[in-house]
Automatic annotation (TrEMBL):
One of its GO terms (molecular function) is GMP kinase activity. GO terms for cellular component: cytosol. It comes from Marinomonas hwangdonensis. This is Guanylate kinase. Keywords: ATP-binding, Cytoplasm, Kinase, Nucleotide-binding, Transferase. Its EC number is 2.7.4.8. CDD domains: GMPK (cd00071). ATP binds at A13, P14, S15, G16, A17, G18, K19, S20. Its main location: cytoplasm. Gene3D superfamilies: Guanylate Kinase phosphate binding domain, P-loop containing nucleotide triphosphate hydrolases. It comes from the Bacteria.
Length: 207
């Protein structure tokens, strides 16, 4: 197979839409996909591990990274800073792996500017009620925090139309197969196949 750069995917959703369960299932099922681990200044939630969900850093270290131009994109999302380091994505793409950036709409806009081939996927919950239940079910935040997150969710969802694909996560398996179909379709685009299978195409046309 010829040298080929992986695809860069942007995955956005309001908190509580089930985005993490979806990408985790996709990562398990597809060994050509990796998730970029972001840096954040927010505190870890119960069960989260440094280096797995996020690199948890303090405000000062985050500002140092901005000054060192270490970020591909970064944004203030509500009360905290979040950013994708350049180091976390380029080596993976160069290995031909598809990389998922799990970022908000502000980061997505920056990535589209820098990397126009990035493919945006937005995950919607099936209803506001389901979203609220999922936020409550997680039980990691107090009630007033949940109400605030609901309005933050609506604000995030208002940007859904800036993305190439939209998935409604009503039934998990359906949503997963839709997401998987998008990854497969993007890998078989003509321009990608020309890069990936250039030798084969030359052979086939050389009679
Ligand atoms: P949470 O704190 O619930 O993990 O994430 C809050 C929001 O920050 C989500 O919308 C998530 O997509 C976004 N986010 C997480 N990592 C990044 C990042 O590296 N860059 C940007 N721009 N947003 C991020």
């Amino acid at each position: 197979m010829d040298q080929h750069t992986g695809n860069l995917f942007i995955l956005s959703a309001p908190s509580g839409a089930g985005k993490s369960s979806l990408y985790k299932a996709l990562l398990k099922a597809d060994d050509k996909v990796r998730i970029s681990v972001s840096h954040t200044t927010r505190a870890p939630r119960t069960g989260e591990e440094h280096g797995r969900e996020y690199y948890f850093v303090d405000h000062e270290s985050f500002l140092d990274m901005i000054a060192e131009d270490a970020f591909f994109e970064h944004a203030q999302v509500f009360d905290n800073y979040y950013g994708t380091s350049k180091a976390s994505i380029f080596s993976l793409l160069e290995q031909g792996l598809d990389v998922i950036l799990e970022i908000d709409w502000q980061g997505a806009r920056q990535v589209r500017q820098l990397y126009p081939n990035a493919i945006g996927i937005f995950i919607l919950p099936p209803s506001l009620q389901a979203l609220e239940e999922r936020l409550k079910g997680r039980a990691t935040d107090a009630d007033n925090v949940i109400q605030r997150r609901m309005s933050e969710a609506v604000s995030e969802m208002s940007h859904y139309h800036e993305y190439d694909f939209v998935i409604v996560n009503e039934d998990f398996e359906t949503a997963l197969s839709e997401m998987s179909a998008i990854f497969t379709a993007m890998r078989t685009k003509t321009a990608v196949m020309q890069q990936k299978n250039g030798n084969l195409i030359n052979d086939l046309l050389s009679l």
